[in-house]
Structure formats: C-alpha cells, structure tokens
Amino acid sequence: MIEQRAVPVIAAPMAGGISTPELVAAVGAAGGFGFLAAGYLTEEALSGQIARVRELTGEPFGVNLFVPGRRRNVELADYRDRVAAEAERYGVTPGAPHWDDDLYQAKIELLIGERVPVVSFTFGCPEKSTVERLRAVGTQVIASVTGPAEARQAAESGVDALCVQGSEAGGHRALFEDDPDDPAGGELIGLLGALRSVAGEVDLPLIAAGGIVRGGDVAAVLSAGAVAAQCGTAFLVSDEAGTAPAQRAELAAGDRPTAITRAFSGRPARGLVNRFMREHGPHAPAAYPQLNNLTKPVRGAAGKAADPEAMSLWAGQTYARAEPKPAAELVRELAEEAHRSLDAARTRLG
Asked: pTM of the full predicted structure?
C-alpha cells in the first residue's frame, strides 16, 4: 500500500500532539503517506483523530502504536526528588511515576474495528495473533526495528514490512529491549548500515528512517534498497504540525547539538541538548514509561512558559537542514530534489 503511493515519502508518527490529522491529510493529498501517533492518547482521542483524517481526505493513512515493555522494578526515589525540584521551579506538581501499557489492547481493538489501512508498531514486536487479526481486516502491518536481530523477530511475527530506524533519528529509539547498562539503550547503527544489515537478514520491504530531511537523503535510501523514506524532523517545522512554538524557535536557530538521553522519559531518545538533559540525563534510570509520567507536568509547564530548557526537544541529527513550509510543498520538494539527485548520480556514473 505504501509502496503504491506517488511519492515515496512518509510523514513519521510523532507523539505528543505533533502528528495532527491536518498534517496526515496534507501529506496524503500531495501523494505521500501520513501517520497518526497513537502514543499517549486515549482510545476516544485516537478515534476522534481517525475520524478527522477521514473527514479531510480519502487517501490512505496509518496509525502507530507503542508496544508495552516489561514492567521493571527500578528505584526512583532519587530521580523523583530531582524532578520535584524542577516542578517547584515551574509551579507544578510532579506526575505519578507509574507503569502503564498505554491502553495498548484497547487501541488494537479500535484499529481492527476502524479497518485502518496501515498500522505500525514501535518499542517491540507485535504478537503474531495481533498481526493476523489486523491483516484479516485488510490492514498492512509494519514493525519498527533498529537492527537485524529485531528484523528477524518481526519477520517471524508475519508483518508486511519493516521501518528501519537509524541512530540519526530524532525522538525515541525503536529498540525492542532497552539495555539499562547502555546509555543509548543498545548498539547505535547509522541508517545506511542498518538498511544493509537488515536487508541481508530478511526479505521484506524496508522503509528508511533517520536523518532524512532533504530530497538527496530520500534518493540515498531509495538507492540503498528502501521502498520509501520516513521523515520526522523534516515535518516538525511544517505548517500543519502541532510542534510547540518554543521548539520551532530552537529548531530554526539550529545552534544546539543533539544527544540521546533518558532524562525525560526513561527511554533513550534523541533531542536538542538543554539544561534538563545536561543536569538530569546522567542520573536517569531506564524506567519507561514511569519517568515519562513523572516529568510530564514539568515538560508541559515549560512549554507553556516558552522555556526550552525543560522541554523534550526531540529532533534528528540533521534538524538544522529542515525548512518550515506547508507539508504538501515539502512533499513535492522532496520528490523533485530526489529526482535531481538521482539524475546527477547517473550522470556521474556515466
């Protein structure tokens, strides 16, 4: 289904209000493919977003789900004290650091009932029975992976395609298992290396994700065997995205480095380096979603105060190359630039 789109560009699912129905519809109307992000939403809110997309467009679209991880017994007292001090700074109360499954099963049932064209999974591999139920209603199923071992596991579950995430990507790493002894959660593999290693292990269509912000990047991953390029950071600054003004300003400035941190959520994620990340990242335990729930009021208050120093400013390594514009215009430009890049490559090869 995704492979049949006129433009092999996907707007990545970005949770927290960034992937709006308007963004999904605009990308689809331009010939690309858009995803809603079900993460952190109730099933009622997700149902409303699906309905809104269908009001705006008749083009196919996808929904991304977070696979719940194992509940870990982690000592959180020290980090709770750190976040309490931050909460006092912003005049809020810390959240409760509880574990939850993000209403995973309820959302599965909703998506089966809605017969959503494509469903993708992040943070783990869907059970084979879940894949079979989704495929039975005509849904294409995609698993997000970061390397060959995850790719093999996902292929065994019966998914239709894989989204291969390189270490350049912004936001949370799609790791199935977060290694608490590794600051990055596991091996960091760049996108082209990940594509090559995954392609050598499984025979499934591959979608490339990580650091893709310009048409030349799209051309590169298509040349490496991907059927489509999934862009997140490129669409962060699009007109239709729900990105907070303070984050847009920092992305536009382009002068912060990026780093991988557990500071905000307890799971490794790449974002712009700020005070919260520097001060608390080294002390953050591997405890997702407990830390995500704990820090949520602080992040929200910082956003309302337009203070980027305590916001989770997720962005990929190439964020400074992203340009603000309407999403449909971005899709068209990515396609045109990709064609020019491929033509130039053919010329160089003679």
From this structure: 0.96
